[in-house]
User: Fold this.
Amino acid sequence: MLCMKGKFKILIYLFLIFIVINIKAEEKQVGKKRTEVKEIQGSVTWVGKDKIAIIYASSETSEEEILLPFSPDLKFEHFKDLKQLKQGDTVAIQYEDIQEETEEGMKEKLVAKRIIFIRPAIPKPKVQN
Assistant:
């Protein structure tokens, strides 16, 4: 039969093995990446050479706007060039929501993959004096 010191040593070894296994499991979580394709629809507020901003929700007191950088393989539907998009045009944007676990925590990156033109901006009525 094992003496008390022997049982204590085995218990310590098992505890250390448990700690090492948990550390290895945490290390495997770092670098883990998850990508989800999403779609959002809204009104164009700004178009740059590598980003687009749209208002996707609004109320009487606030507006929700999102800025999406373009993917290098960005695709267009129902229009040919970004220069055709004007402020107020309605578009749908399919984008990737990439979430990656890093040592600092979860990082999220949004990337526009496809822009679908839905309709042109509604012209504002001219005020006559």
